[in-house]
Model the fold of this input.
Amino acid sequence: MSTPEIISGLSAIADRYDVVLCDVWGVIHNGRESSAAACDALVRFRERHGPVVLISNAPRPSHAVIPQLDVLGVPREAWSAFVTSGDATRALLAMRAPGPVWAIGPETDAPLYADLPLQFAGPEDAAFISCSGLYRDEEETPDDYRATLAVAAGRGLPMVCANPDRLVHRGTKLIWCAGGLADLYEQLGGPKVIMAGKPYPAIYDLALREAQSLAGKALDPRRVLCIGDGAPTDLLGANNQNLDVLFVAGGLHGEHVLEPNGGLEARRLGSWLAGAGVKASSAVPALAW
Done:
């Protein structure tokens, strides 16, 4: 069992890295408000060390998510570029045009399909499924979709999932995401789901190309730091890419890994990470400088 280095803030390890790939939801905001300390840490890294590329499983193109960051008070100075699962997913959708596609997700995810030559249909007539989330994620769970997903699974429809996240915090409430629907679809006998977001390679390819362009030089993977709070997405994705990762332990998994005083104990944390099948090079209760 490997135990991560417990640090108080990014400044303790910043000199080791030239680039940061940082998760968004759970690290710099919780869906309701941003973390001033986390934003300040990214601003300082960018000023002193190198580019910060935000890497998010948001199912919309990055240009459609930036206004949300602005509303939540995330300063533009905290990041150099922004790559989303939606950016990577659009290429997968274009390959399957004209479909027709059964699009599962809220109206706010409409930018995912903008200008793509797709036709839309229901589960009985579609050629494939595109899942960006639940229609009403404040009210529904994946089980509400069991009957219609069973119809699609029976027809053997492939599913493209625009957001591999299963659950996120919106404020203090846990919200189901598209990854939860993808899990249920496979349980119902549907084909293996196609995903482009974290922990899958496509989104890292995009993010690293952006970072290299911003740095103006070839990147040394040993000097790239990923930051995230999700074990099956952020940590596993970084592990698969052989990149160092700073685990923000007080995010999605905080109730399982934080001590009663809000701190971290290395051995306990290492044991939890091993049980989750992932590893972290360092860990912090919440992102700060």
